[in-house]
Design brief:
This protein is of the alpha+beta class. It has a single domain, classed as YbaK/aminoacyl-tRNA synthetase-associated domain (YbaK protein, Alpha-Beta Complex). Helices cover 26% and strands 27% of the residues. It is built from 5 helices and 10 strands; from the N terminus they run αβαβββαβαβββαββ. The radius of gyration is 15 Å and the shape is globular. The relative contact order is 0.24.
Amino acid sequence: MTQAPVPSERDRVEADAAARGLEISIVERPAASSLHEAAELLGIDPGEIVKTLVVKRSDGTFLFALVPGGRKISWPKLRAVVGVNKLSLPDAAVALGATGYARGTITPLGSTTAWPVFADVLVTGPRVALGAGEHGLSAYVDADALVAALDATVADITDPE
């Protein structure tokens, strides 16, 4: 009996987006050493890059926080929205285990577990770029469509970096 091939991370992203009726465009991009360099390489403003951060709850479950470039999680704000007293960023190995994606490639699309998504109010626009599951790839997507497709909770959860 032959086993079916394991889908690549990119395949998982594309399949999940298609299942949600979400149009994405995945592009190859060179490595960048900063947010500003990445934005320049992609031809967009830094705020149009959306970081997907894996956040661990004290009960061992996780959530995704969608954070626009140039901003960082405001822990008091996020804790208030989630309704918990403690949240943390797990190390890279734990994040990989929770999502199936390496740090720097993480996206809620195609995650091995569909964790709840919390998007900052500034994740808006007709086109944003986020991780596409593999290094060297970015996914362009309409921010409003992404938030809707993920049934994300939208709230003020960030502060400027």
